[in-house]
Amino acid sequence: xxFNISKYLFKSDKLFNQVQPSFMDELxxxxxxxxxxxxxxxxxEGSLPKAVYKLNKGKIKIEQTGDDxxxxxxxxxxxxxxxxxRPLLSKEKHPVSAVILEESEVEIFDGKGFLNIAKRSPHLxxxxxxxxxxxxxxxxxxxxxxxxxxxxxxxxxxxxxxNEKYKNADNRTAITMSKADIASYSQTTxxxxxxxxxxxxxxxxxxxxSRKVFIKNKCLLEIIAEGF
Length: 228
What we know:
There is one protein chain. By secondary structure, the protein is an alpha+beta fold. It has eight helices and eight strands. Helix 3 (111-120) crosses helix 4 and helix 5 crosses helix 6 (179-186). It is elongated and about 55 Å long.
């Protein structure tokens, strides 16, 4: 059994792959840097799209309001990833909110300028099509897994995703997301997350230190995530 983490991760960092230097210069000219603090909103659900974003530093959580009025996390963006282009291309309002998870630096590309360049750059247009197609599969994979698995399995999947998202340059990982956010991401309650994390600690799957979570037995966590 091999747990395939890639089916839960976007590939938006490939957005500018092989884009011609002249178009890259144009993209640079329509961009600006924004420094954000934890808890700030980059954009709100229901707002009109005005830009494409690249995360240069930090982490951003993407939230959506459910029918019950509660917000739930649907994705976490990390350094190097681009986002915000989907509603811009479809000319629809943002279906989600982007919330700063930790102190971050975001590069913002003007929406109209980006679309103008995308129409003229074959590589950028193809990259957009490829990324959007792949992201559709990621959404389906995540929705399917979270709707059919037990709470313990859902928390295991989210911890494995976060283990990738929080990996640093030294390949070390300390997950610092709050239990409330882990609950929101795994579609469980905070009480359930506390109970599952305690079980995982007792099973030597992970350890905790203050608000940090360290995965110690990734193999066993993958087995749990798969329902074995």
